[in-house]
User: What shape does this take?
Amino acid sequence: MEQTEDQSAALEFLARRDSYDPMPGDDPEHIATHGSHVFLAGNRAYKLKRAVCFPYMDYGSLERRRRFTEAELELNRRTAPDLYIGIRRLTRTPEGTLTFDGDGETVEVVLEMRRFSKDALLARMAENGTLTPALIERTADRIRAFHDSADSLSADQAPGAGSAGMHAVLEENFEEFGAQPKHFAPESVATYARDVWTTFKRLTPLLDRRVAEGWAKHCHGDLHLRNICLIDGEPTLFDGLEFNSLFACIDVLYDLAYFLSDLIVRERTDLANRAFNRYFVDGAYEGLACLPLFLSTRSAIRAKIMVSAAEAQEEESERATLLAQSRRSLAAAMEQITDIRPRLIGLGGFSGSGKSTLAGALAARLQPAPGAVHLRSDVIRKRLYGSAPTAPLPAEAYRSDVSARVYALMLERAETVLKAGYPVIMDAVNDRPEDREAMQTLARLLDIRFDGFWLDVPPNAMASRIAHRHGDASDATESVMRKQVAQGHGPLRSWTAIDASGPPESTLRTVLAGLTADD
Assistant: This one.
């Protein structure tokens, strides 16, 4: 990092209580990152870009800092209009002191934002254990809505997308790794580089095809948990990248990958899998083959950024924490680029047998990251009717012809996902032998392993579970369940019947043991 200009006067001004009107009750809190200084004063936050020059980020002159501050305001108002207030100038008075928005020479520009509690950051929630599956799913909905609303870009407009964009990012990563052998062991980097470039070569046609198909957009670019907060109770994306279109004008799945990677590095693969499946609630799995490369690249970028952030810290404990995060991130990057053969898992059982609870827990345990695609018939049926996953459907939505359509769509999506290299869990009642056989036929055609599990639970236990459901996608009642029981499931053949009447953890252990048999 090269410091290009002296900003000490601006930093001293922003650190004083009496610089602000109204004056805050406490001294401003100063937060330093590798690219900015943030001062928290009263109910406002003021962000000053550091006068630094990196290969990927140049804030080296006042004019560049002004231009990029204006761009940051414009871009982030797309996702957080209530958070971004405006731009303030630091100007010099005739006496030589600094003030906000005076008539004198502009010395620096700062971005004024609405201040929020640190506890509103998803990163803080992840650290203190309050980040819930429901909030993660709402955040995934918000990310998907943001991506869907953005305009598609051509190859010329999206330098970070396609094979050319990814090649540039990868080359920069390895250049910076090579320049810091103290933090990135050359032997590990060499092994990682071999796997990355092999994967990149295989994916080059798909990366370019996704640009032609409209998946390159002006995205957030830095979508990790420290850049998502709750504003008025809603997940809000902020602090998107403005300084380098190589990082922001990218494939939407590359944007999503940083969010997922951050959860994985924090050892919340359960939440990463939830977000992954919620983002793809309506399918569109054709680009999934790119995700391992995208995830790994994001983890690698996080590794080098943690090193840069560590070097900006004054406290040794903070520096050590960030360097440990960098090491974990690089290890995750190396793991995420590995090639793993997909598998198909079928779960069957009458309503209330615990299929979806099992599928959700199981999906996060499978590789590659962020786990299996969980295809749930209840959710697919709701989306066919344009409804939210938990919205009740009319009785006509459960006609046999609709159910046949749901099962056919599940198979179609499963095939797409499996061809992309990800495991699939097909979660439905599956009480008809022909539906179970269709899954096995798909697995045989794709030459992959299939495991089918039928969950056996006494009817009264299923009735109790149904009675205690809240906010679930299933509309099945006890009456529906008892009709299913009376009809039966026919011969299970190669499917394995398991006792699922105990705690969910016990059922999960039984299934995991079955999945590892003969591996």
